[in-house]
Amino acid sequence: MLIDLVQLRTFVAVAEERHLTRAADRLHISRSAASMHIRAVEQRIDSQLFMRTNRSLELTRAGELVLRQAKTLLNEAVHFSSFTRELRGKIEGSLVVSANSEPLQSRIGDVIAVLRERHPLIVVDLRARHSAGTLQGLKTGEIDVGLLSDQPADPRFTCHPLTHIRFRIAGPAAWKDRIEGAGWEELAGLPWVTSNDTSLAYSSWLHRLFADKGLEPNTVVRFDNGTLARTLPAAGVGLMLMREEHALQGQREGSLAVSPLALADFPLLVAHLASRGKDPLVRAFMDAVAAIWPGIAATPST
Prior knowledge:
Blueprint: H1 5-17, H2 20-27, H3 31-45, E1 50-52, E2 57-59, H4 61-88, E3 93-99, H5 103-106, H6 108-118, E4 122-128, H7 131-140, E5 145-148, E6 157-172, H8 176-181, H9 184-189, E7 191-195, H10 201-211, E8 218-223, H11 226-229, H12 231-234, E9 240-243, H13 244-253, E10 256-258, E11 264-273, H14 280-292
Parallel strand pairs: 3-4, 3-5, 7-8
Antiparallel strand pairs: 1-2, 5-11, 6-9, 6-10, 6-11
Helix pairs in contact: 1-2, 1-3, 1-4, 2-3, 6-14
């Protein structure tokens, strides 16, 4: 019985997302194609893999067992592809790179320009993906190299620090006196705009700022898109942990007030599976990164 790896990768994505449409968006395929892939896997193993609930898809017991083996198989497939490229000694093929929605600080455009100049036979597939999604994609082979906004604890990844991203607490300009004069307890008690996805690095950063002080922000609005959320503090909705450049720009324009209390620096890293360190495609990309960010090759972290 032959299992199609593309279909198997779709199964893993659906199992992780617990939602067919989100998995299809993640894989850049149609919802109908994702559904066909799931049916094909179920037919091949003659078992139902998912049960539908009101809001999500839940794995059956058979699905849980298949998921465990599927991740192992996909990981081995990634290693095999790396091995064959190394054996041929050719640097050509498709490289999937994930980046967040703030490309300027990572200089991802400059990196890809260097890569294309040096290796015109490499085709780059650039995808917008947050850190949690990048880690998932690296594990299953959906992504070859990705940018992360936090250091993973998983030793299977090799990470290279690029720079740090600074965040500030910003809120409506009309609250200027309250924000600038507030201590941590007062800041936590004001209305907040926070992420609705606790797996995101953003949520982890915000939690760290307040948890050590025994506090929790007073959330009044949750978001799943940072660009959209940045319009809310200026509109008078609440406070937000915001990238410093956006916060200071709003302060200069008179639409935001910025707390002097919090200056939070978080790392920006480029990561790949440690087992793929010798993959010619990954090496070519990391060489291009080193050309834009000199010295990173000497500072990997795992």
